[in-house]
Amino acid sequence: MREWLVPWRAASEGGVVRPPRKLWLGLAALLFFLSVGVSFGFIATQYRREVMIERTGMWLTGQASIEAARFNTVLTQFQGGQAPGWRLSERFEILYSRVKLLDTVQPDSDSPQITLLRQMQPGMMERLDTLDAELTALLGGDRTVLPQLAATFADLEGQLSEAARLLHNQARYAQTSVITGMRSLQWVLLASLAGLLLSALLLVALLIAEGRRARAMLQRSQTSARSQAEAERMLRALVGGVPAMISAFDREGRFLFINDAMARFHGVREAEVIGHTPAELGLEAGGRDLLDWALGSAGPTPHTERRVRNRQGELRTLLVTGMAVEGEEGKRGRVVLAALDITDRKEAEDRVRHLAEHDPLTDLPNRLLYAARLRARLRQARDGQGGDFALHLIDLDRFKAINDSLGHPTGDKLLLLAVERMRACLRADDLIARIGGDEFAVIQAQARGAVDAARLAERLVRIMSEPFEIDGCTIRSGVSIGSALGLRDGPTVEALQQRSDMALYRAKAEGRGRAVLFEPAMEELRRNQRMLEDDLRSALERNQLYLAYQPKYGLLADRVVGCEALLRWDHAVHGSMNPARFVPAAEEAGFAPLLTRNVLGMVCTQIRAWMAEGLEIRVAVNISATLFASGQAVQLVREALASSGVPPRLLQIELTEQVFIGNPAAARDALQALHELGVTTALDDFGTGYSSLGYLQHLAFDVLKVDRTFVQDLSRGDGNNSSWIIETILRLAHGLGAEVVAEGVETPEQLAVLRDLGCDAAQGFLLGRPMTAAALAAAFRAAPGDPAALPVMDALPRS
């Protein structure tokens, strides 16, 4: 400091203007305003980010997608006469207002998703206006607008789903930005605080130097005295205007100075504290340890957080730093402390962290926090701390069906009640987390082996099997649980999670509502399953799958009238594989659409080849139920017909009743779409499902296929139950205008009984085994006669 004052003394003693003093004052002011400006700039940026979250949340809380689902439900009820028109109109007005909320979400340069969403709004409002006009016509009695209304609503619903996805992405992006901004803001504030501290120290040093100079020149110049007073007022104004709390102490810890922020925080006046220690005044300011630390440090002490009570007795968090001020001969006799109240920022950080780590509905730890806790629990177990533990993965059974049928509010209430029940089964040191829509995870602490893990899992299954009472409705759900023991079943988070998931998969496969503990054999089965999936994917890419054709014999025409395409695969290791094994593997691996596209392509190509030979043979193809559930089946059939040019009448789609379980309305729409394409449909395995007759009441099939379980017991004579059942099915089908095909015919007696009963067609090993396309064509050309003359093909060539 003395080196800084040398130019001042030289300049003042020579009676000239003292630019060094003004230079340092300007530098201090510049440093002050720069620090304050940078801080306020970052604070403003952080505020904009938080506002961005609020804007996004305003539209999300509007629940436009949910209101769309409610509108669709009331529309369906209105069509069935179960809801009045005013209720439908009311639901539309609510939906309209929710979409209109998007006006409150203003576009921002930092939120491209919001800008994109605002670009989507005119389209959504246009569809709402169209929907309004169509709804008015419908309520006026014009039911012909129902198809157009449904199409308009489907477009709007798709846009709402996309809007919700964009807003959720924006919310996650904004939360991440806020957290990152909070961290950046901390460093900026720390840097600004350091700048403010340096400017204050510089001003204090200037004040001391100016005081010394003023006292030395007091008798010689009144002007110098006024300059000293002016400099002191400037210093006090600057230090008093600093938002940080600044105080100065002597070596004994007595107050030498406090600024206005410090006085307001403790509710004191500067004159009351000067010359006293904080302990004498009952104040929590600074601390003897911090003063000693500053006196022994070469520069400012590192910023530390301290919990201090203000004048109201509230605990506040202060970010504190200190610096010793050198006196004469380099002795350190003074300490300046600067503190910034960061309580609000800390609370905001805690809120953001909680939102980022917890599920907003149940307030349970989310997947992020769950993974961190599981990783920490594994680390403790490896270090021999905390004892053994178990991981339970829990799926809420039938949740999607409940959510779709009763609505999302009911689904949310079910989740909350389910969490409450599960918590009642857990100990205080157990952790439950929500890791998906209806997926939960429990980290069971102190699980002493498989017995403890199985006991908790069975208790959860038992208590969750009890019905729930929600809004006057009795709802039955239940859970499926897959469990694994920490360290024993998985040394890492990924391995433990994977093996728990294997056990959960087994629990679901065994009929749900079960708890299964992982066993090493499951991993071997899963490994074999993955190998099968890889081999099947390779076989699809290399076109190694092929078709065999089993003839359908018309009992009235006494000849082959069509066939069923059967998929075949000669595995390099396992040999000829049953489709019942590899088709489910394709469905689980997610390439059922690719498999179906290939099969339809091969079938249509073969039909075209037969047509080139002058033959029109109708081919039946069985399509996976999963494709009907996802709405892909009709599109795949449409693409195959369009690309091949095959007449739709030569293609028959076989469905099982599994297609209609879960979403009968979607299946009905798919069946209607297939009929509109001109494709015939057949209900396979008829009679084996408990609700087949219920499907016939609402769905129109062209063909009913009697399951082989009824055919195998057929015999001549009275009292044969199978004959009575098949005769009843024939009367029912013919009354509905459908043909009947009997499957699994293996004896002449079975064929004779079916012919006597008036069955339309039959297929089975007696009439022809699966054969090549050439053999099927030869059988189709054969003149009417004995079906035993059909060629039998036990083995099919690859070509």
Automatic annotation (TrEMBL):
Keywords: Membrane, Transmembrane, Transmembrane helix. It holds the Pfam family EAL. InterPro entries: Biofilm_reg_signaling, EAL_dom, EAL_sf, GGDEF_dom, Nucleotide_cyclase, PAS, PAS-assoc_C, PAS-like_dom_sf. It comes from the Bacteria. Residues 387-520 form the GGDEF domain. Residues 302-354 form the PAC domain. This is EAL domain-containing protein. It comes from Teichococcus vastitatis.
